[in-house]
């Protein structure tokens, strides 16, 4: 689902109303001018089901600047096109147009030059902030004019950007420059023909007294950045002692600069060598340093202290520079197929990744989230461990990686092998997270009704990785326990007899009239839903993309819906 917190769909005509009702956003019908005017300040995005010309006339008086304007996408009354009107990159209209197009089966229309010509947009580079003459340098990129790169920091740039610059890079003093730095540039504000790329290389350590105010902390961080000649755009994290994790002054710094907060206990901090330890601090909190030690701890191996601690009345601040980017791996469940079943967290993880790795069909499933600046590594079917190793190796090298899976990453997918391998010393220090997704079993159950209303079991009939004897024992146990059974991978061109055997085992313990739901391609094109019985189940009608839901003795069909009662009474 959309990353935008609030999307408002506005329609005018009856065909437009029907189109708007197919979208999972707030819907207002009629009075488009009044609605836009009233909601312009509190909505993140608008989907106008209206002619493009009418949309332009309505939004034009409301536009201020691309940094603050909401995204606007226009959809025609036939639902054939989803057009990004304004806020393409910064506002997220391009991504929203792709999302709306997938929801409606429409054609996304994107006119942003960098997207159309597959040139990385400098203000959309994952893990980097861009500052300066974006329009001028982007024009030079599009024209493939010579561009000089000044790398004050050896920070990896997106492959798509370096590949493009490899054709135009200049070793001389070109009129257009890209500077990779966390410092304020000597000439002051970034000037014409220059873009500074700001990596999140700085970690600010903060120590406070219990009575420190929010202003005390924010002012102290601002002063430390100024003293070090550093750009606030390169602040990547905030660190402190665990006892101050929830202090309002710490929260204020995190909120102002949108920083993740890392906390450490006193023993961990006291084990870190710092230039200015304090016995006073040690007597108060059990460690000789908070600000310096926390900054260095969060910045990781090889970090250097670039701004030693500055002690104020109530706040102490120090700043450390990371030796390189902190690598991370997000193992992402994309859901069963439709963008409507994809979570906002999954969309964020893919959009914010520098590298996206996955089975080619899963990469296609999230292609509306991808940009030319991302390094995309699709794999053919199989080679699961190779996929996982590549993702972990890239993360260990400092890249932000998304390993994409269908459904939920932890259910018959890549989370299990990835977490097993991530535990080896080779990948120590790589931050690994699992992003949940809607499973095929849950999507199938929702289409059938409420067959999983009571206890149930999930089993795969694929014996490629699990011996059939073990699978059969599990099916038999489920049958004997009178559990609803969700069956994945019931049949393939090479595995044709397993479903018949499982059915015969179930019939030993359940009546032939037991309800069975057969859902093929849930939430995908060609979705098919059949309600039958265990006795009449046509095993030849199922395949690898079919999910079977086999009822228990209490499961029944109510008005064409499969229901397993929980036992509520009213």
Which properties best describe this structure?
570 residues, alpha/beta, Rossmann fold, Nucleotidyltransferase, domain 5
> What's the number of domains?
5
Highest CATH level, the class of the largest domain:
Alpha Beta
Helix coverage percent: 25-40%
- Structural category is alpha/beta
The CATH superfamily name of the largest domain is Tetrapyrrole methylase, C-terminal domain
Please tally the helical runs, counting DSSP H or I stretches of 4 or more residues: 19
Q: How far apart are the termini?
A: 36 Å
Chain-averaged pLDDT: 90
Strand tally: 28
What order do the strands of the largest sheet run in, or round the barrel if closed?
2-1-3-4-5-6
Q: Report the CATH architecture of the largest domain.
A: 2-Layer Sandwich
Taken as a percent bin, the fraction of beta residues is 15-25%
* Shape assignment: globular
Descriptive notes:
By secondary structure, the chain is α/β, with parallel strands linked by helices. It is 30% helix and 25% strand. The strands form 6 sheets. Strands 2-1-3-4-5-6 form a 6-stranded mixed beta sheet, with helices on both faces. Strands 13-12-11-15-14 form a 5-stranded mixed beta sheet, with helices on both faces. A 5-stranded parallel beta sheet has the order 18-17-19-16-20, sandwiched between helices. Helix 8 (214-228) crosses helix 9, helix 15 (384-396) crosses helix 16 and helix 18 (468-480) runs parallel beside helix 19. The two termini are 36 Å apart. The model has no long low-confidence stretch (mean pLDDT 90).
